[in-house]
Amino acid sequence: MSTMTLPPVAKSFFTFCKKCDADRYHKVITHTSSTSAKIECEVCHSKKTYTLPKAGASMAKKATTGVRKTSVRKSSHADEYNQLMMNRGDEKGLPFNIRTKYELDQKIDHPKFGPGFVKVVQIDRVDVMFSDELKTLMHNKH
Ligand SMILES: [Zn+2]
Description:
- The strands form 2 sheets. This protein has a 5-stranded mixed sheet with strand order 5-6-7-8-9, with helices on one face.
- Among the domains are: about 5-55, SH3 type barrels; about 95-140.
- The protein has about 140 residues and is mainly beta.
- The protein is built from 1 helix and 9 strands; from the N terminus they run E-E-E-E-H-E-E-E-E-E.
- The chain is elongated and about 50 Å long.
- Zinc ion binds near residues 24 and 41.
């Protein structure tokens, strides 16, 4: 896993919107510092400041000034999910259907859980990473 960096300007990523009271895509307007950015909710257009969670080392550069231990890794699920959404947020997900056979890394669009990414594929079930957790769903049913 790489260290957390801000999403690039004009990119959208998935984070909580207080006004919508739901997870929404937010577009990055500008970076205000190396760890915070002005973002705008794509649904209600409210603007807010997004600050990177302190993850030990939030420096994108390999500034090896002194010895820094980066063993503190928490909430890697949210990090990984945000990273996926940052890279593939624009990708069209397949609508979820129990009859469809999904493949590894497939992005799916679940009516209840939202966008997700297939992490594990078995014959009749898939583990899909959604914003809050990994869920096991059935698929490939005939
Ligand atoms: Zn909103």
